[in-house]
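Continuing the series of single-chain predictions for the mutant panel. This is the parent chain; the variants come on the following pages.
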Amino acid sequence: MSMVTVQEREWAVTRTTVSVATENLELTPHHHKARTDAGLASDVFSPLCEVTVPKRISRGRETMRTQTTFSAPVQRRGFTLLELLVVVAILAIIGGAALTTLDGLDFQAAKGVATNSIASVENTVRAFTMLEGRLPNNLESLMATTPAGATYEAAMLDSTGTQGGNEAKAACLGSKVAKKFTIAVLTDDQIGNLKSALVDGKSTVAPYIRAIDVVGNGNNGGDLTIKGADGQPASVGSIGDITIPMMAFDAPRPGSANRGRGFAIDLASVNTGLQLMVWAGQVPATPVPLYDNVKVGANPTAVLVGLGIGNYSDVVSTSGDSGTGQVGESRFAHAPFYGAVAKNEYPNY
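Parent structure:
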């Protein structure tokens, strides 16, 4: 094999100088023409890859040959704008399909968990009632009121009082929960039944339910009538900006945290005029049969009262914090809550 370089001019056209490989092969007449005085003539298959070169001179004439070579295509680097746009379009389609498929799965998951949680809550409350002989104490009334005769109880790190007017639904309740209840006055007999259900008769447990200081139930907040958990004056911000809604009925946290704003209503001193959240459609003074009563296993004419399970209820064990809980007590480790609510809505069961 040898490498030669040739440059020739034919019909005033300058050919490009290239390097080609030559072989000792004679060309057939079909592939070349005779040399003339004007220059070299040849069949051109591809102007980019074929040249005609002299091989050797013998007896006054040249033997010519041609060889076809093909150069490798030039490799491109990167992508064209069109290719990038196609990729972006494909990713957008995939992303949109994923969002459509996954949208709402968090709420569906929360509802699935709620189905099991409701059964667990019911079983735990039933077991607690059987073991203790009473309903859980210090449940949350889902409403706000003016604390009358508010007193700080150092042993409880809490404030107690009675309803002093301005009763209203807790502003942190979700709309679905709020519309299921109305604030109504219980009869004296119904108040007595509630108090006896919260006291087992074998202990000195005082019957309590919790409410929100009405000052902390609005969008402006302010200085509360009740004291903080440390016995100092308490002030809170807007309930719409509450940081942990499940603590809304807790005693105000020391410092400036916008959380608890609740106190305990001492039912021992309440014999008449108590207002609570009653299932919508029922009138305590003249109860009527309701399907919802039958659905939950109650008497058709029963008066259903809404109460929430919060951290201050004695059905919630504190074994994880101070070690007071015991195995077999049938209590919650923490207050159960529903996850598919807004971040500033009351989530407790």
